[in-house]
Structures are given as C-alpha cells and as structure tokens.
Specification:
Keywords: Hydrolase, Protease, Serine protease, Signal. This protein is an alpha+beta fold. Helix content is 17%, strand content 35%. It is built from 10 helices and 39 strands.
Length: 665
C-alpha cells in the first residue's frame, strides 16, 4: 500500500555557489537564543495569550492502524505525550493500551502473522530524526524489546514477514551505505543475508506461500520502477518484463495459492499508453492479464489481500479523495460496503478470518481514526475516537476544490491547477481575507484534504484563508502531469504559484496585498523561489527544511538518496544542468528576496542538510532583512516531537501576525 505524506522528499548536488552580491547595507544584528535543543534567531518571545489560543488546536491527535494481533486486537499508532508510539485496542472504542515508550517516534510497525508461532511485532526507530532507522522486535508475552539490525549508521525499514512467520525480509543500506538492498532474516536463528545486491533502491514486496521466492521492486523515481522475483534457494534474481520498457509500479503480491500475482502498474494496455496506474492480475500459466480497475480514470494507490484468499480491497485516489472497493475472489464481484466518510485512507488490513477490514480514515474536519468494516454485515464500527483538543468539531472548515488557470495551454485550452481552498466561515460583508498558500513537498507529493489543525486555527481564530495547490509535478493526476516540472522545466511549477497569485487578485473576498506562502522540503524550495520571483506580491514566507541551492543539496544529501533525486531534478554533473541550477537556485537570487522570511530546520536532516537553511539565511540577511531562523538539534526532516512542533507552530503564527495580518507594510 502506498502512503502519502505532507512533508515529502528532497532535492540536488555539486556546483560552486556564485559569490554573494555586494552588500549595500549592514546586516541587522542577530538576536540568538539557545533553549535545550532549540536554537532561535530573531524570533520574538511568544505571547502567553497566543500560546493559550493555540493550545487546543495543538492538542489534537490522530490514530492509524498497523494491523491485527493474534488475539483479534488492533495495533495502532498514536501520540499521548511527545511522540507517536504503538498502542493496542481490542474492541470498538476500547481502552488504548500503550506498548512502546520512547522519546523518539516509533513507526514502520509490522505485526507477526496470525498463523505463525510468533506473538509480537517489528517496529522501526531512529535517533533525532536522522532517518538511520533500526528494526526492533517487541515480544507480547515478555514485553522485551530486541534490536534486529546492526544499530549503526544504516537505514533499515520495510519489515515483511513470510506467511508462516519463519522469515522476515527488509530493506537496508548496511552493505555499503549507499545502495538499499533486500535482506532476509531467519527468524529462529537470527541470521540475516542480503538477497538482492544489484545496486540502487530495492524493496521486498511479498513472500510466496512456500517461502521459495520473494517478489522485489527496484525504485528509480515516482515514474519508474522495476519488478522482479528472487529465488531464495539459489539466490537468482529474475526481472519481469515491463511493457513499454519503462513504467511505474505500486503494490505487488502473490495470489493465495502462489500461482499468480496482483500488481499496480501504468504500463500500456493493448499498446495504448496509460496515464494512471491500474490494479492488474497476471497468471503466468495462461499468460492472461486482467485489469481489475478498468474504467477508473484515477490512480490505484494500494490494495490488500485477505489471508484466506476470498477478498481483495483496493483504494483509488480520485481528485484527492479516497474510494474503497472490496471484491470477492475469484469472481471480482464488488462487495457491498457501508457508507464511508469522505476522506483519505488506505486499503486497510484484513482480519485473520477475512471477515473484517480495518482502516484509518482522515478527513479535513476530523483527525485520522481507526474503523473496522464487517464485510458479511456491511456495517462499520469506530474503534478509536481521537481528541480534538476540546474544540467544537462542527466549526471546522471543510475546503472546497477549485481549479485556476495557469500560464500554458493544453489542446487549445488554458491548463488548470487543482487547489483546496479553506475559507473562514461567517466573514463580514466587504471584508477581504488575508491568504496563506501552502505548498507540498516531494515534489512528487500531493496535497490532500486531510485534517490540518493549523489551517483550522488560521481560519477560525485569525480569519485567514488557506490555499493548498497541487502544482504540476504532483502525483495523483497522471504521468504527464507528474513529468511537467522535471529537470529544466523546474520553474514551470513556480509559475503555477504566480498564476495562483493572479487568481487571488480576481477573488473579491481575498486580499491580494496580504499573501503569504509556506512549504516544507521541496515546498520550502518553492517558497524561496516564489519569493525570488514574486516578492512584490508576497509579503512573507516560511521555508521549512527547504532546498536553497540544487547543486549543494545534491552534493550534501545522503548518498542513498542522491541518484533518486537526480532523476527528478537533473544531474548536477551535467554542465548544462549545472548551469540551470546556478540560474534558478534561490541562493544565487537571494538579493531578489525582499519579503519577510522565516526559515526552520532540523540539524540531523539527512535529506535536505541544515546547511541549505543556514546559507539562505545568511544570504538574505545580507540584503538587510532580519530573517527569523529556527534550528532543532534533535530533529531531522520535519518536527516529530510535540514540544518542538508546538513552538514552531506558535512562532509561525506570530510571524504571520506580524508580517501578514497587519494592514500596512
């Protein structure tokens, strides 16, 4: 099952930086403060009344399902203190029993198969956001935790059990620190060996029922991946043919009897190129290929197979909204389901008997919670109800989906960009609303109408509208859309923000003179680039773990990510591409940034190194701008600890209050 996230990957490599432009004014004095792991520069003290207003919004939480236990309980991830931890719930709206207790967040939870002799789960955890995650075993009987991987500066993730629990596959950089290989561990002896060492980034997908083979996938980019199969007895790796030579694949799994496979792909069908990824079934014995989701003009995001082979569930992403379908096998007859809330969710996890499907559902007005569908009864029960800080959820603002015209044409018509529009309720007649544009990362991410406490606070408490666009290069809108910002076309996505500024100026309820922009990771680059091009129309911007120079980014990002990012952004070793990086990188255009700027960063970020933040802060301050800067020594690519995120959230609101909400410059 694929997962979307709001703060996505990073970007690019070597290129010398142009000399700083001559200073015409002395840089303003920097007011620096160190409190524990937090370093802040030029950030004023947060007023107590602001902290009080924010408190309830910052105490919302969600819950996500990880899978079923042997005794019919559910493992979920949720936060009750600083970080997300593993909990267990055994009945609808039952008590949540916390199982892990760490200062670092826990993720990647994989319960042992119900039919195995194991009773526990594997989880992953890193240190301070460095993403060098290790795998651990939690034993339910003894409550002991045991380290399974090397504990070194390696990245380990994607734990996958065989159906009998005798083997565990996972992905790891342990061999050379750069390539992500597939490893298989003998659960009984603890012996592990690399079974795919072909170079690049590989993942384990599914064990065959007899444990003789393992489906694997090599990922190159969001638009390119390659499936294969490893013979676990001989070590032979066989790559499957890819129709058209190049395609994007999603999930890959054996059928219940192991004789055929289900998979997600955008390969051509009958020689016709496909824009979207469909769910397919292939039977090697007959050569028959069935397109299960035929006729749905949207991506299939993920699927789940019941252990007993009777049902298959899959989810499509339809303009940012999830649609779940459950099919009876082998007929593919669609099973009647209860009415599901409009929201975002995955394909879920089947119970051992195949009669129940657990899934997490998130909506714009409700945090993620766990629900269980009873398939024979076509009913649904809520298993968790996460807190919303004591707020009145009926007052939360649901966004509307708008489309605005941008600069280029498709088939003789102006191309349009989708965006979610959070508009405050009960706005007095004649009042123009300030606007914040929130840009996702990736760049192959997608902004979705999920619960966003910041958007709710801005709308309900400050009267600020928020626009969340999916500019070209976003996933979810087909492979052509995904490719529209690649390499030398990078700044076309920035032009989409310029077009959104034009759209804002045409809306009678929006104040085009008070526009701010915020984004993380690649979205941080988009913030900086937008300020370079549109400082005359944007008052202020918040750059979170963003790229300031594609060349230095590629040079300093962790080696296991470098080739993946070169596919998307271009190869800095190519002189032509290096010249483009020099021309478009915000660092080399810092003199054009005249809007107010707030930069926030994690010191341990392996994706976008903290040096990207420090160099843009220094360069913009050379313009005479008193940039706000926040650095956490115990965070990486984003802020995962509640106290850290709370302070950043409060500082962000204060930044908007001082630089956006005031009516005068």
């Amino acid at each position: 099952m694929s997962h979307r996230t709001t703060l996505a990957a990073a970007l690019l490599g070597t290129v010398c930086i142009l000399p700083a432009l001559a200073q015409t004014t002395s840089p303003p004095a920097v007011v620096r403060q160190e409190v524990g792991n937090r370093i802040s520069e030029n950030i004023p003290a947060i007023p107590p009344e602001l902290l009080e207003r924010l408190n309830r919004y910052q105490n919302t939480r969600g819950a996500g399902v990880a899978g079923w236990t042997k005794n019919g309980c559910l493992l979920i991830g949720t936060r009750f203190a600083e970080t997300n931890q593993v909990h267990r719930v055994c009945q609808p709206m039952g008590m949540r029993e916390q199982l892990t207790f760490y200062s670092e967040p826990v993720g990647g939870v994989s319960p042992a198969p119900v039919e195995s002799s194991l009773d526990g789960f594997v989880f992953s955890k890193d240190k301070g956001g460095d993403e060098f995650s290790q795998l651990y075993w939690f034993d339910n009987a003894s409550r002991d935790v045991r380290l399974l991987t090397d504990g070194k500066r390696t990245q380990n993730s994607g734990a996958l059990f065989s159906r009998d629990g005798k083997w565990m596959a996972y992905r790891s950089t342990a061999r050379n620190g750069t390539d992500t290989d597939v490893w298989v561990r003998d659960v009984a002896s603890g012996q592990a060996r690399a079974v795919v060492t072909a170079g690049g980034s590989w993942s384990a997908m599914d064990f065959s029922p007899d444990n003789k083979t393992l489906l694997v996938m090599k990922g190159v980019s969001a638009a390119e991946s390659y499936p294969g199969e490893v013979n676990l007895e001989t070590g032979a790796l066989t790559m499957f043919p890819v129709d058209g030579g190049k395609a994007s694949f999603g999930g890959f799994a054996y059928s219940h009897d192991g004789k055929s496979v289900y998979f997600i792909s955008d390969e051509p069908l009958d020689g016709v190129a496909q824009e979207f990824k469909t769910l397919r079934h292939h039977d090697p014995a007959t050569g028959k290929l069935s397109v299960i989701s035929k006729g749905i003009a949207w991506d299939v995001e993920g699927f789940s197979l019941a252990d007993d082979g009777r049902h298959l569930a899959y989810v499509t992403n339809e303009d940012g909204i999830s649609r779940l379908r459950v099919l009876a096998l082998p007929s593919y007859r669609e099973v009647k389901l209860p009415v599901l809330p409009v929201g975002v969710f995955g394909a879920g996890a089947f119970s051992a008997d195949g009669n129940r499907l657990a899934l997490s559902i998130n909506s714009a007005t409700s945090p993620s919670d766990v629900f269980v569908i009873d398939l024979p009864k076509a009913t649904m029960a809520r298993w968790t109800q996460s807190e919303v800080g004591g707020l009145d959820a009926s007052k939360f603002v649901a966004p509307t989906l708008i489309r605005y015209p941008t600069f280029d044409n498709v088939d003789g018509r102006r191309r349009t960009i989708p965006a979610f529009y959070y508009r405050p309720a009960n706005v007095p007649a004649g009042r123009k609303l300030p606007v914040v544009i929130n840009i996702h990362g990736g760049p192959e991410g997608q902004s979705l109408p999920t619960f966003n406490p910041t958007a709710q606070f801005m709308a309900n408490e400050l009267g600020v509208a928020m626009l969340v666009p999916n500019v070209r290069g976003s996933t979810g809108y087909g492979k052509t859309w995904l490719s529209l910002d690649n390499a030398e076309k990078r700044e076309d996505s920035v032009k989409d923000i310029g077009a959104l500024l034009d759209w804002i100026a045409q809306q009678p309820e929006l104040d085009a003179s008070r526009v701010g922009v915020v984004g993380g990771s690649y979205g941080g680059y988009m913030v900086l680039a937008s300020l370079v091009h549109y400082s005359d129309r944007i008052r202020a911007g918040i750059d979170v773990v963003g790229i300031s120079h594609f060349g230095t980014f590629l040079k300093n990002t962790e080696s296991y990510r470098r080739d993946l990012r070169r596919v998307e952004y271009g190869d800095e070793r190519d002189p032509k591409m290096a010249e483009i990086f020099e021309r478009i990188s915000p660092l080399n255009n810092a003199a054009k940034i005249q809007a107010k700027l707030f930069v926030a960063q994690g010191r341990n970020d392996p994706r976008v190194p903290y040096t990207e933040a420090e160099q843009i802060v220094k360069a913009v301050r050379a313009n005479g701008q008193p940039v706000w800067y926040l650095l956490y020594a115990d965070e990486g690519h984003g802020f995962r600890k509640k106290s850290n995120n709370d302070y950043f959230g409060a500082a962000s609101v204060l930044f908007w209050q001082q630089n956006l909400l005031n009516s005068d410059d």
